[in-house]
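Reading is simple: the token line describes the chain's fold. The lines below illustrate.

. . .
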Amino acid sequence: MTGEGAPDGSGRTDRVAGALLAALGLAVGAESSTFDVAFLTDPVGPKALPYLTAAIFVGAGGFLLLRPGLPPVWPGRGVLTRMAGATAAFFLYGVVLAPLGFTVATTLAVGTLSMLFEGPVRKSFGAALGLSVALWYLFVWVLGLPLPLGALWTR
């Protein structure tokens, strides 16, 4: 092993990731250039954060393209399964947030994530419910930010 990338020294995995990251950064930068908001609304403008993000993506992607690291060590099947479960939980959270409301959707998502980390079912969902209610009160009563109650319950 050469210590630079894959055993053959090519660093293929990092170079592919670097190219994808740089391409994503360029896409974010291109999309940011289409933002048009009055100057008085925000002196820095709505483009500043996306441009900064795009620059970081392109810079990190370029670094990976030029200096790939050691070959990756892929996680085992159990870790990959938990990662897939967490990804599904976050995706489904976005899907069910409007119809079920913040409290129910957050309880289901946090409880599921807790169970993925081998938490007991009752404690996982009990803690998730407590967190959901506390967050709802924080956002709605303390910060004054409205959260969805759920179209299913408000018909």
